[in-house]
Amino acid sequence: MKVKKVMAATLTLAMTAGLLAGCGSGGAEGGSSSSGKTEITIYQSKIEANEGYQKAIDTYEKEHSDVTINLEAVTGNDFTASLKAKMQSDPPTIFSVGGFQDLKDYGDFLLDLSDMDILDHALEGTTDMFTDDEGRVLAVPLYMEGYGFVINKEMFEAAGVDVDSMMDFEGMKKGFDTLKEKIDSGEMKDKYPNLEAVMEYPTKELWIAGDHDANVALTHDFNTAKEAYEAATLPGTGFKDYKTMVDFQASYTTNADDTAKLNSVDYTTSLEGGLAIERVAALKQGNWIAPAVENTDPAVLEKLDLLPYSVPGYSDGKYFVGVSGYWAINSKASDEEIAAAKDFINWMYTDPEGQKIVVEDCKFVPPYDNFGDLQATDPLSQRIMEANQNGNTMNGWVYSGAPNTWGQQVAGVEVQKYLAGQATWDEVTQTCIDQWAEMRKDQN
Q1: Are 147 and 286 a contacting pair, CB within 8 Å?
Q2: pLDDT at 1 over 60
Q3: How far apart are CA 309 and CA 167, in angstroms?
Q4: 77: how many CB neighbours lie within 10 A of its CB?
Q5: How far is 13 from 444, CA to CA, in rounded Å?
Q6: Which of 247, 191, 187, 246 is nearest to 214 (CA)?
Q7: 287 and 2 in contact (C-beta within 8 Å)?
Q8: CA 36 to chain centre
Q9: Which of 309, 334, 336 is nearest to 398 (CA)?
Q10: Helix/strand/coil for 15
Q11: 40-67: pLDDT as tens digits
Q12: Which residues contact 298 (CB under 8 A, 6 or more apart)?
């Protein structure tokens, strides 16, 4: 999952105190606390799911009185650096990993999890990221996410647009054009006084255009993140479609005539200060935004829907979906801790009560096929679950196989230059291709 602008301090304060108190006796080198219980620690980055995780822990501990689980969460902005430090000083039992770079950074700490029961139910392709050359699974899928165009369907319907007509690029563009005309003419003002534009495009956040939109280009050349990771060069055959989607989004913002200003728009402005307060009617995002919208205005969440990430003639009707979070288990933990960690993860994804918490409280789209008729509680996750079931998906995380930092520091920065009039799209394309090759040399 990508970085969300949520601060971790208030969420982790109480838990951190308990964690520090238990480090001496229940850390990775021990396994048993002074009470005789097996004590394990989870260190994770998806802080918006923290309450759900804690509910899962509390429920599990009631059924397993011999285990104590401590939870610590750090916001995605700071997680990579904090985890590296944590692994050197007080390594947790279970920890979040998310990409190929983690195989290099934490290889000595990654336990072979191939014997995990839950892997029998893993959806096809979901374990590829952390399967090594020997076929060992070194991290288990935690949740799937998908992205497309989140819309306030009520606004489009008020403008006379049938949401079902917007499931391909041509229909989406027609619907966006219709709403734009009605906003510009003032017809929407009485019912939606805050509504300023069809979309927001927060390119200050380098992952917006540099990971998600760049994924359009990368899927032309690579089927999986692993293919991308193993590629010394980038053919760049999909950059025309990449440009189409950048231009499409920019054209429906209040800054359409001065796109350089988009580089000052951040995630919070676009979401909590945009879609969630009905200042804009659409946003290229994914099901992970549901908690933030609900916290801002639950009534707005009920109005939302998720359109596919339709590229004309390429991905019409498809949602970009993939596993964006994995859990690894510390190979240097004690046997007791490892057993408890495996059992907790298996419980979350096989026990009916655990599964319900995963979907309803953590608001995850499960990467496993054993959840039966359990349905998501928000409309965005429901769309992704349906897309998975119907096969209306494309690989949304091919970009995670790009050279480390290429997506944001090369593609994202180059799109900023393009929007600011400082680079042509041909220059953007060539720089991205050249830097891929150079960065891959350094990586290897």
Answers
A1: yes
A2: no
A3: 9
A4: 15
A5: 40
A6: 246
A7: no
A8: 38
A9: 309
A10: helix
A11: 999 998 888 889 999 999 999 999 999 9
A12: none
Q: Do the beta carbons of residue 350 and residue 370 sit within 8 Å?
A: yes
How far apart CA 238 and CA 261 sit, in angstroms, is 26
Residue 290 has pLDDT above 60, yes or no: yes
pLDDT in tens, 411-434: 999 999 999 999 999 999 999 999
Cα 270 to Cα 261: distance, rounded to the nearest angstrom: 13
The Cα 138–Cα 112 span in angstroms is: 5
208-to-65, 176, 261, 373 alpha-carbon distances in Å: 44, 20, 15, 33
List Cβ neighbours of 64 (8 Å cut-off, separation of 6 or more): 340, 343
Half-sphere exposure of 10 (CA within 13 A, CB side): 3
3 state SS of 51: helix
Token pair belonging to 164: 């079902």
Distance CA 87, CA 103 (A): 14
Structure tokens that stand for 103 in this block: 């195989």
Task: Copy the structure tokens of residue 305.
Answer: 């829907």
Coarse DSSP helix, strand, coil percentages of the chain, rounded to the nearest 5 percent: 50, 15, 35
Dist CA 302 CA 380 (whole Å): 10
Structure tokens at 342: 């495996």
How do residues 69-117 score in pLDDT, each as one tens digit? 999 998 766 788 899 999 999 999 999 998 888 888 899 999 999 999 9
Quote the tokens at residue 388: 């998975």
Q: What six digits make up the tokens of 233? A: 């060069």
Sort strands 67-73 and 280-286 into parallel, antiparallel or unpaired: unpaired
DSSP 169-200: HHHHHHHHHHHHHHHHHTTTTTT-TT--EEEE
List Cα–Cα distances, 281 to 12, 163, 172, 271, 338, in angstroms: 33, 13, 13, 11, 47
